[in-house]
Design brief:
The protein is mostly helical. It contains 12 helices and 2 strands. It has helices at about 20-35, 40-45, 65-100, 100-105, 110-145, 160-190, 195-210, 215-220, 225-230, 235-245, 250-280, 290-295, and strands at about 55, 60. A two-stranded antiparallel ribbon has the order 1-2. A hairpin with a 2-residue loop joins strand 1 and strand 2. Helix 3 (about 65-100) packs antiparallel against helix 10. The longest helix is centred in the first third of the chain and has 35 residues, at about 65-100. The termini are far apart.
């Protein structure tokens, strides 16, 4: 068998079922030699040996998987909220323009008050929806764990590192406010929700595109490519939260990246107010960048 091929002649019973012939031949060969080797050899060769690994960091026992869970929750929640709620952020302004509701709103409310209130309300609404999605899953797990034969998970084993949790929370808040402001600004600049949706994919690619480089964030955090994605504000949320979850994000790196996103979020908020002020009543065209930045009395 080490020098020649096992030849199988059989009836064609379908493209998927035909593989069963070679599997059967393999099982026959395996059975034929089991009587000649010990159980220990069989366990080693079949890979059925069980391992219990204990890891240490700085002289103390550690569990990287359990350490990832608490700060990693923010990454999962951010992914869910942007994926499920992002389009609503984008169209929240354009729908008001299309329905002419914005005309009545601007007669009683200043543009700055309206746009800031919209961004904050969308942020809070997204958090509430996130809780409503996650809470039933968690409650159902603990209530139906035994009936549904779900795997037992001991919450006491989760490592609580308040420093990393705080960093993830800051990145989450800064990222969510930044992208909410960008989407609301875009919605105010275009005349219809259909045109707004054409730009939506671009921002989603920039935001979630770094997921394709996720292995690099874990194994090569010092590479120039990872550093660029970490500090560039439109791609930073995923790298920051993932690197913080695995524990290779330094506090000074997180501080710089969060600062950049916070500054950009403030600038986006100012631009959003300006775009909303001059684009709220534009029903037929998209505002140009020159019109947005043009000084006005």
């Amino acid at each position: 068998v080490t020098e020649s091929t096992i030849e199988v002649y059989a009836k064609d019973i379908g493209i998927f079922e035909n593989s069963g012939y070679s599997m059967l031949a393999s099982q026959l060969l395996s059975t034929s030699v089991q009587s000649e080797v010990s159980e220990v050899d069989i366990a080693v060769l079949t890979g059925s040996v069980q391992y219990d690994t204990t890891l240490y960091s700085d002289g103390e026992e550690t569990d990287p998987i359990m350490e990832m869970i608490a700060p990693g929750v923010f990454l999962v929640v951010f992914f869910m909220l942007i994926g499920f709620f992002g389009n609503q952020m984008l169209t929240s302004t354009t729908e008001e323009k299309e329905n002419r509701v914005i005309e009545m709103l601007l007669t009683t409310v200043e543009a700055r008050t309206l746009i800031v209130g919209k961004i904050l309300s969308l942020f809070l609404l997204a958090l509430i929806q996130g809780v409503l999605v996650v809470a039933p899953v968690v409650i159902g797990y603990f209530l139906l764990r035994d009936q549904a034969s779900l795997p037992d998970f001991d919450l006491a084993e989760i490592v609580i590192d308040w420093g990393r949790i705080a960093l993830s929370a800051l990145v989450f808040v800064a990222s969510f406010i930044l992208f909410t402001g960008i989407l609301v600004t875009l919605g105010a600049a275009v005349p219809t929700a259909k045109e707004a949706n054409s730009f939506y994919g671009v921002f989603m690619i920039m935001l979630f595109g770094p997921l394709y480089a996720a292995p690099m964030f874990i194994s090569s955090p010092e590479s120039p490519f990872v550093q660029f994605l970490t500090y560039f504000p439109l791609t930073a949320p995923i790298p920051l939260m993932l690197r913080n979850a695995v524990g290779n994000l330094a506090v000074w790196e997180a501080t710089i990246a969060i600062g950049i996103m916070a500054v950009l979020a403030v600038l986006v908020l100012m631009i959003a107010v300006r775009v909303f002020k001059y684009g709220a009543l534009e029903y037929s065209r998209t505002l140009s960048m020159s019109e947005i930045l043009k000084p006005r009395k």
